[in-house]
Amino acid sequence: MTSAIPQKSKPLPEGIYCPVISIYKSTPRQEIDLDASYNFFSYLIRAGIDGLVLAGTTAEAVLLSPAERQDLLRVARKAADDLGLKEYPLVAGISGQSTNETIRLAHEAQNAGADYGLLLPPNYWAGAVNKDVILGFYREVADNSGIPIVIYSFPAVCNGIDMNSDILSELAQHPNIVGVKLTCGNAGKVTRLTQEYTSSQFAVHAGSSDWLLPCLIGGGAGCVTGIANIFPKSVTRLNDLWNDVRMNINESRKLQGLIAQAEKACKQGIACTKYGTDFFLGRKIGINDEQAFWPRRPYKPCTKETQDWVVGVMEHLVEIEHSLQMKYV
């Protein structure tokens, strides 16, 4: 039965969100390259990406300083504003290990231009994180945040903490909790939550594009996907096919399979995602320094063998990507 709760005052828009990579200068300290970031954000927006996620897992958020997080948000907001998209949605990672720290991060993100906050559960002492702790944490942050909260379910980076659909459903009833990103890959959560809530009440997004079509078929609102850093037009095309009432289901299935094949490289880690962005898109957006796409140390870029594998599993999308038009010019 559909919930009777009112729609949220600021629902999370449906569509494709890109958790953007961080681009660095090739200096000993690997400072953030804000000019290159502006060009990259502008390209993704013009390509039709529906929203950007800043300071998320793919952005190496745990390796970014608070000032860098805020600078990237301001640059993303300027990129959208300069394209005339004053209401373009920006989602900021605000995950902290304490309630106090998380509320501070939410306030800083709001001041820097974020519209929503993406929030993992506390997980440092996983054995102490039970249902009551999770519910209390999200509710208190939501009570004290000036921006709506999007729950981030990603057990692989949270010491195995996995929020089931019952917990998510309870949190969905909070007026300032507007959706969830399911990087847990559990399609059952999609269908259970969408049976209860509309997207304007609580939006359910897949955490990667290799199950975008199953998520949409199950009533989901879209996805947040690393492959959008590399092939943004292809992923948005798949979403558009689904949204078209005259869609060609066979074309959708074919494109879903191609995107899923490319996405598996992103699942091997951030270094692969960044190398793919460099190889297929870097020169196109004017970034000619391959080190700009290296992970922040101490983490290492891909080996030559891995680079060749990444290109091999992604290159089948190049022709499709190049055939599609930019959404904004």
UniProtKB/TrEMBL annotation:
InterPro entries cross-referenced by the UniProt entry: Aldolase_TIM, DapA-like
GO terms of molecular function: 4-hydroxy-tetrahydrodipicolinate synthase activity
Pfam families, alphabetized: DHDPS (PF00701)
SMART domains noted in UniProt: DHDPS
PANTHER family, alphabetized: DIHYDRODIPICOLINATE SYNTHASE (PTHR12128), DIHYDRODIPICOLINATE SYNTHASE-RELATED (PTHR12128:SF47)
Protein name per the record: Dihydrodipicolinate synthase
Annotated organism of origin: Aspergillus sclerotialis
